[in-house]
Design goal:
Largest sheet: none
Domain VanZ-like: 9-136
Transmembrane segments: 58-76, 83-101, 121-140
Pfam family, one: VanZ
Number of domains: 1
Keywords: Membrane, Transmembrane, Transmembrane helix
Number of helices: 6
Strand content: under 5%
Oligomer: single chain
Protein name: VanZ like family protein
Radius of gyration: 17 Å
Number of strands: 0
């Protein structure tokens, strides 16, 4: 199997993972967040106190950010097989944004969930942050 097919396969698998998380009803999604809080508490980190009772909200938004950070990285990695750096970064952020929009639209059909433009911005910012990390690592590598 070619490297290009493997890279695009990873993109599609990750998009599927995002879709599955978005398909969970509001109650199941909250259970996942509570599990994270439980794990942190077990490790001695009182995340609710640290985050002034906003742990559930912040964990959900951090999950959005992280999902799309990973999506951008996988897209960029697949696109750079066929495009130069600038084109790869631009196409990857456009696709990341469009997938975030489609994800929020999908959530409008899931019980207990709903679309939020704020989430599109958080998702896209995960992609933008990944783009900055890639750009900075490229600059650092050139200086060596």
């Amino acid at each position: 199997m070619s490297r290009r097919i493997k890279k695009w396969g990873l993109v599609l698998i990750w998009m599927g993972v995002i879709f599955l998380f978005s398909s969970q009803n509001g109650d199941k999604s909250s259970e996942n967040n509570k599990f994270i809080v439980y794990i942190l508490n077990t490790l001695g980190i009182d995340i609710n106190t640290i985050l002034s009772g906003n742990a559930d909200f912040i964990i959900r938004k951090a999950a959005h950010f992280t999902e799309y950070f990973i999506l951008y990285f996988l897209l960029y990695n697949a696109l750079k097989e066929d495009f130069y750096f600038t084109s790869s970064t631009i196409f990857a952020i456009i696709i990341t944004f469009l997938y975030a929009v489609s994800d929020e639209f999908h959530q409008s059909f899931v019980p207990g969930r709903g679309p939020a433009f704020r989430d599109v911005l958080i998702d896209t910012s995960g992609g933008v942050f990944c783009m900055v990390v890639i750009y900075l690592s490229k600059i650092i590598r050139k200086r060596k």
